[in-house]
């Protein structure tokens, strides 16, 4: 198991490790007579293009129902895209040879939100991790497996390992369980970990510990993350690049600085305006620019720009035409909004400095 | 916005609306006795918004449930202390008396409105059930629509005729709020009211609660783990750890000059604050409540633990009203708070 060197010059310019190209996912919906139909289906992810580079942290943010979890499943190859493709090192994952498929599965690992339901409740930690080491590490002695399991436990700071080896998932605290889930992912030396809300089930102090751990693993091993999250403060702290999704579409993407310091899309701005800061003085001084309403159902997506019914700066044009954004060589900041470039329009939605 | 004095709030400063004294709740957990709340002192004055913050397992929900008489009967072993609601001790009252004592004084809303709304009954009827008898005469529909409107569900959408499953998460929580308002309570207990909601909806629901607090002068006891929610809403805050209150202060003081090491480290582990100053992450986790001995419960995780921590600590009240359960507040223990990243030792006697 050799780790590819995370050379900084090549990471930013070379081809992405994993990309979603124009990928859509339509869930079939039951019709009148119980027949499943994709025609009437729900487009959970709609023509999304995302690149993930070696060693970076890409965050996908949005409210519930925006398609971020579906996107993570597509990236992992756990769901077949209805159209478009997922490419691993430039190759469509559906057309990989058996060996390449193995390499892809090994390189891209996953951590779920709720470790209690993603860890087998009938296996002790020793077996949960041992099985993975055996599966991916080839033929090796029981002692070698044991050594490796202990090493991985040390790496996620479950020390001394002997205290944890014989425990079942239900005998661990929430934070310890999430550490086991992370141990499971790093045991095979992946290049990318797709983490779907890995922190939201945890207490604040434990969240802090897990963030530290994820960062340390990144610094030491050059592992990249796709972090699916609704917590903008966490994203601001750990991510390099951000993709903001709304109703299955990307509405804004760019570096953390671009998206958080100078957000251009009204939805991103509204999201940031909703974040509660741990600062009572600021809360007293500020009137929030709140957006009205909740995320509409995916089954009845608004025409034109999907955000227009809730958007405070929408005009008639927004109701008809879907906005597009074209990447330019100068910037990676993409904004899917008709009014983003108009002077002083989106700035009406005031945002706090996060 | 959130910190305001109310005309009716200042007047009743002398006797609080809710006065919890030395509340101890003993639970039976897997055959072992656990004190889920231990000697909790807490008060809420009329028209005040008070926060009770703590991590999971700190006992904050137990305190909230004690106040409305919703302790888990199966696990409950016994309780000590007093809970004075408008001067009446409600701890240990029988169901009927308890109902009378609660009516018009206290209502509660929960994290998951889905599990507290009746799925087989239209929202309007559930609210009608909770209305006082007099209100049913005349035009109850008008009253119900009025309550829903106050909770942020506008008239004319026929919300009262819908079933809970026909409402979105945010709307359900608003229906819950309308239901809580039906008895016109002086105090609303909100246990993690926005935890299950999206950020944008959370901000909307909190705004509604704040309007109710400001316009009706309704007192709120807000239980949450989220310091952002506390900062947004509360005037005064209690911090709970492993069944005990460890610090209390007004919100600005607590956020700007926290004194208990737990509060400090917890605030430092918030992602927003970590960026500003390199805070150290809080290590370890809450101790097993059934294995507690004497002394400070935070000792095992505290970077300032010393021998004196093995003794139980009282709440020491500072001149500014901030109360802290920590040996470092003892004038005899030479206070050395160096090394903590919150660089504000304050005026120490």
How would you characterize this protein structure?
- The complex is a heterodimer of chains A (354) and B (349).
- Chain A is built from 14 helices and eleven strands.
- Chain A has helices at 8-13, 68-76, 98-107, 115-118, 125-137, 142-155, 162-165, 174-186, 204-221, 232-238, 256-261, 266-274, 280-285, 316-320, and strands at 18-30, 36-52, 57-61, 83-88, 91-92, 108-111, 192-196, 224-229, 241-246, 249-255, 334-335.
- Chain A has a seven-stranded mixed β-sheet with strand order 6-7-8-3-9-10-11, with helices on both faces. A four-stranded antiparallel β-sheet of chain A has the order 2-1-4-5.
- In chain A, strand 7 (192-196), helix 9 (204-221) and strand 8 (224-229) form a beta-alpha-beta unit.
- Chain A is globular, with a radius of gyration of 22 Å.
- Chain B is α/β, with parallel strands linked by helices.
- Helices cover 30% and strands 21% of the residues of chain B.
- An eight-stranded mixed β-sheet of chain B has the order 6-7-8-3-9-10-12-11, with helices on both faces. Chain B has a four-stranded antiparallel β-sheet with strand order 2-1-4-5.
- In chain B, a hairpin with a 2-residue loop joins strand 1 and strand 2.
- Chain B is globular and about 65 Å long.
- Chain B starts with 6 loop residues before the first helix and ends in a 25-residue tail after the last strand.
Q: In order across it, which strands form the biggest sheet of chain B? A: 6-7-8-3-9-10-12-11
Q: What percent of residues of chain A adopt helix (DSSP H or I)?
A: 25-40%
Q: What percent of residues of chain B adopt helix (DSSP H or I)? A: 25-40%
Total E-strand runs of chain B = 12
Unreliable runs of chain A, pLDDT <50, ≥5 residues?
Answer: 1-12
Major sheet attributes of chain B: 8 strands, mixed
Mean pLDDT of chain A: 88
**Element order, helices and strands of chain A?**
HEEEHEEHEHHHHHEHEHEEHHHHE
- How many β-strand stretches of chain A? 11
Q: Into which percentage range does the β-strand content of chain A fall? A: 15-25%
Q: Briefly note the structural class of the backbone of chain A.
A: alpha/beta
**Strand percentage of chain B:** 15-25%
Outline type of chain A: globular
Mean pLDDT of chain B, nearest integer? 86
Class from helix and strand fractions of chain B? alpha/beta
> Helix segment count of chain A?
14
| Major sheet of chain A | 7 strands, mixed
Give the distance, in angstroms, between the N- and C-terminal Cα atoms of chain A.
Answer: 40 Å
| Widest sheet, order of strands of chain A | 6-7-8-3-9-10-11
């Amino acid at each position: 198991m050799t780790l590819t060197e995370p050379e900084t010059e090549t990471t930013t310019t070379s081809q992405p490790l994993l990309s979603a190209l124009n990928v859509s996912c339509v869930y079939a919906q039951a019709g009148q007579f119980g027949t499943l139909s994709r025609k009437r289906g729900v487009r959970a992810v709609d023509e999304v293009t995302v690149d993930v580079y070696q060693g970076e942290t890409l965050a996908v943010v949005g409210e519930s129902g925006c398609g971020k979890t579906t996107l993570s499943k597509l990236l992992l190859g756990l769901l077949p895209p209805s159209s478009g493709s997922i490419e691993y090192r430039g190759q469509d994952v559906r057309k990989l040879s058996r060996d390449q498929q193995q390499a892809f599965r090994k390189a891209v690992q996953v951590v779920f939100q709720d470790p209690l339901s993603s860890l087998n409740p009938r296996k002790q930690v020793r077996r949960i991790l041992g099985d993975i080491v055996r599966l991916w590490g080839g033929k090796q002695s029981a002692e070698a497996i044991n050594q490796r399991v202990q090493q991985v436990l040390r790496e996620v700071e479950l020390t001394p390992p002997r205290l944890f080896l014989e425990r079942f998932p239900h005998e661990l605290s929430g934070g310890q369980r999430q550490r086991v889930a992370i141990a499971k992912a790093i045991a095979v030396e992946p290049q990318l970990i797709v983490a779907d809300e890995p922190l939201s089930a945890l207490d604040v102090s434990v969240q802090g510990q897990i963030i530290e751990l994820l960062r340390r693993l990144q610094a030491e091993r050059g592992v990249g993350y796709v972090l699916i999250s609704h917590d903008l403060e966490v994203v601001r702290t750990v991510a390099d690049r951000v993709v903001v999704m709304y109703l299955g579409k990307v509405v804004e993407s760019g570096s953390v600085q671009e998206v958080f310091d100078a957000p251009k899309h009204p939805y991103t701005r509204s999201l940031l305006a909703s974040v509660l800061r741990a600062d009572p003085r600021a809360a007293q001084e500020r009137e929030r620019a709140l957006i009205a309403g909740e995320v509409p159902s995916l089954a009845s997506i608004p025409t034109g720009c999907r955000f227009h019914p809730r958007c405070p700066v929408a005009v008639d044009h927004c109701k008809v035409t879907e906005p597009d954004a074209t990447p330019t060589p100068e910037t990676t900041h993409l904004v899917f909004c008709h009014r983003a470039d108009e002077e002083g329009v989106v700035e009406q939605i005031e945002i706090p400095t996060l | 916005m959130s910190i305001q004095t109310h005309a009716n709030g200042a007047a009743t400063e002398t006797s609080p609306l809710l006065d919890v004294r030395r509340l101890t709740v003993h639970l039976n957990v897997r055959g072992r006795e656990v004190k889920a709340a231990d000697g909790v002192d807490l008060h809420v004055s009329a028209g005040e918004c008070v926060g009770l913050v703590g991590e999971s397992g700190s006992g904050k929900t137990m305190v909230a449930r004690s106040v409305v008489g919703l302790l888990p009967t199966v696990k409950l072993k016994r309780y000590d202390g007093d809970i004075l609601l408008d001067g009446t001790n409600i701890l240990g009252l029988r169901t009927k008396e308890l109902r009378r004592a609660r009516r018009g004084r206290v209502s509660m809303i929960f994290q998951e409105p889905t599990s507290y709304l009746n799925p087989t009954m239209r929202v309007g009827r559930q609210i009608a059930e909770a209305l006082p008898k007099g209100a049913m005469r005349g035009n109850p529909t008008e009253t119900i629509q009025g309550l829903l409107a106050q909770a942020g569900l506008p008239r004319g959408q026929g919300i009262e005729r819908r079933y809970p499953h026909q409402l979105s998460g945010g709307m359900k929580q608003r229906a819950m709020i309308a239901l809580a308002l039906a008895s016109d309570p002086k105090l609303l207990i909100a246990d993690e009211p926005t935890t299950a909601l999206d950020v944008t909806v959370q901000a909307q629901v909190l705004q509604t609660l704040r309007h109710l607090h400001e316009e009706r002068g309704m007192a709120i006891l807000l239980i949450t783990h989220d310091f952002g929610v506390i900062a947004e809403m509360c005037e005064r805050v209690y911090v709970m750890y492993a069944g005990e209150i460890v610090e209390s202060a007004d919100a600005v003081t607590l956020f700007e000059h926290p004194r208990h090491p737990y509060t400090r480290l917890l605030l430092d582990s918030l992602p927003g604050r970590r960026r500003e100053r390199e805070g150290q992450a809080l290590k370890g986790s809450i101790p097993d409540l059934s294995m507690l001995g004497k002394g400070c419960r935070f000792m095992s995780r505290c970077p300032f633990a010393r021998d004196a921590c093995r003794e139980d600590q009282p709440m020491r009240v500072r001149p500014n009203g901030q109360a802290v359960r920590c040996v470092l507040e003892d004038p005899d223990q030479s206070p050395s708070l160096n090394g903590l990243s919150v660089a504000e030792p304050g005026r120490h006697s």
